[in-house]
Structure prediction request, 158 residues.
Amino acid sequence: MIEHIGGNPAAAQNPWASLFKTVAILRIGTGTLLLVRHGVGGVTGAYQFFWKEQPWAWVGMFHEAGLPYAHLVAPLTAVIVGAVGLFWVLGFLTRLFAAAFLPVVITVLVIAHKTGSVLAETAWLYLFISITLLLFGSGAISVDQLFRFGQAGSRKRR
Prediction:
């Protein structure tokens, strides 16, 4: 069986070069975008809604979409989106958070198609990225790689 293709396998590899050879750049870019565009605002809004009892637009949108218990589902969704964005940037438990993000994205996709929203395209992109990260993991530059999370068969046999 071929173990290595091309180049000298014994040559020292630049660790930053592996960033662009894996899904790490996709994970970091998507996590940053998700955190900045949706996560921080959502978590801040959930905090204001719960502890300062201020009105929040997400609750109204969830209620109009017909979701039950919108006053509880909206803050939970905000916390999930914020956590997914943060942990995708770090590369910590990437597959777990990709799986946790799938129900959120699928729900947004269904609601966006019902209402004819322009967010359907964004939801499709996040869905495909979530599935990709669920299948391939976090990549070379991540906390998962540092601690070898999700690599059951990585030990070499003697």
Notes: The mean pLDDT is 83. The first helix runs from residue 24 to 51. Residues 23-147 form one domain.
